[in-house]
Structures are given as C-alpha cells and as structure tokens.
Amino acid sequence: MPSPRILILGATGGLGCALRRHFAPEYEVTSWSRAELDFGRPDTVAATLAAHDFDVLLNAAGMTSPDACEVQPELAFLANAVVPQILAECCHERGVRMIHFSTDYVFSGTGRDLWFESDETAPINVYGRTKLAGEQAVLRAAPGALVARVSWLFGPDKPSHPDSMIQKALQTGDLSAVADKISVPTSHADICGWIEQLIVRHPTISGVLHLCNSGVASWHSWAEAALTIAARLEVPVKTSRVQPVELASLTQLRAPRPLLTVMSNSKLQNLLGGEIRHWHDALEEYLVQKYQPQ
C-alpha cells in the first residue's frame, strides 16, 4: 500500500514541528501554520481543507496557554472546540482519518492518583474546558477519529520546562519550582513514533487514547532531573538543586491548574505491544542530543 499523505496543523508549534520532521523523510507531508489555516476564522476552514488532498490529518494546532485561554475564552473556544469540530466534519465526509491532540488538563486533578481514558473529566480552567469540548465535538462529528491526550511536552523545537530551568541555572544557583503539581513529562520524539505506529499498524483505532511516557514527576523533580543530566554533560549550570514551592505561591498565574493529572498509558502499551519508556530516559536522550550532538 502507498504511504498515507499526511496533513499536519500547528506547524510552528513544538509538537507540529516534531511531527513534520519525523514524517517528512518517508511520507508525503504538508504542514500548515496559522498563515495557511486561521483558527480565528472558522468560516474559511472547510474550503481550505477541500482544496487539499490528504489521507490523515494530525491536528496539533490550538490555543495551548492556560493563562491566555483564561483571558480570551472566546478565542480559546474557537481554536480548541469550534475549529476541531469543523475539521472532524470535513474528515468524516471525505473518509479520511483525523488524529486530534488534547491534554491532561481535561481532568480535575483531584480524587485519583492515576487517570484512565474512561475516567470522568472535570476541567477546572478555560483551557481544559475548551479542549474537552473539542474532544467531544471531534468524536461526535467523526466517530472514527482518534483523540490523543498528551502531557508536559518537551523537545528541541520550542523551549519547555527543562530547557528554561537549564537556562536559568546558567545564570544563577537560586532556583525554585513547583513540587505539588504532578503529571508525566512526555517526549515529542516518542509521540511521533507512537503516532506513526498508530497510523500504520492501527488504522481503525478510535476514541480517546493517552499518549505519555511512563513514570511521574513534579515540575520540581523534572527540573532537578534536567539539571543533574546537564551537569553530567558538562553544561556549566551553577546548581542541580531546586527549591520546592507550592503551586499556590505562583500568584501571577491567571488560570488555576489541576494538581495531579498522571495519565495511564496502559492502553497505548497494550496496543503497541511493548514497554513505554520512562520520561527520565526520554529526557536524557533529548538533552544528550542537544548538548552533545554527534
């Protein structure tokens, strides 16, 4: 069978960049940024899609800053719910596959230590509510679509928490990070590999699926792990120790954050038939590639 033609939305975001880089060598890939498909103008979306041929749509676009969503809820709803529904309707009508990326922020962060795909959702901020609305709209419009929930992404294309902590540690040894917010750091590179397997080996899988590495972390332990690895790689960080603080102390945040959103990846592991590596191993690989390129 010929390789599927892949359309990637959100081409300038970290995940979109990673998906484009992963698939481009072996697949016919088109990637669009907001310049090509403006989520602020939903009336143009269907016509734009209709002018392009593709077999799989990977929707990594949206409004992802919780604080920005809190300030601009109408725009967040357009980007995270209205446009995904239009995309899903177009894909369903054309008989093409849609994989839509969502978030661990659809969960409340209380009442469970581990969240499964079937667990009740109860988001506590505008970002989570609009992403949940997008999940529901996509699956109503295209029952064959796949909603891929991800958490705490990191990779080479956009600075993430470990990158910013290392940059700060190059300047000062006085660092702090939240210790009571817990989830699963997840590698862009690993997500790309999983998505390829789901496209090639599981063309009919639909519904909700958690895509995350194994293990758990806080922003604090994630930061200390990154700094420890960086020090071992002889990056001149001034410390590998980080002062733990509580999320409630970050009064500058506009949007409330869920405290505990560790997602189970057991369904993904069963589908792919192998262990899902620990986030620490994925982080180490990323930092080695960044600071000791071959």
From TrEMBL:
Coiled coil: none annotated. Pathway: Carbohydrate biosynthesis; dTDP-L-rhamnose biosynthesis. This is dTDP-4-dehydrorhamnose reductase. The keyword NADP applies. Belongs to the dTDP-4-dehydrorhamnose reductase family. It comes from Prosthecobacter fluviatilis. Keywords: NADP, Oxidoreductase. GO terms for molecular function: dTDP-4-dehydrorhamnose reductase activity. NCBIfam families: rmlD. PANTHER family: DTDP-4-DEHYDRORHAMNOSE REDUCTASE (PTHR10491), METHIONINE ADENOSYLTRANSFERASE 2 SUBUNIT BETA (PTHR10491:SF4). It comes from the Bacteria. Its EC number is 1.1.1.133. Catalyzes the reduction of dTDP-6-deoxy-L-lyxo-4-hexulose to yield dTDP-L-rhamnose. It holds the Pfam family RmlD_sub_bind. The keyword Oxidoreductase applies.
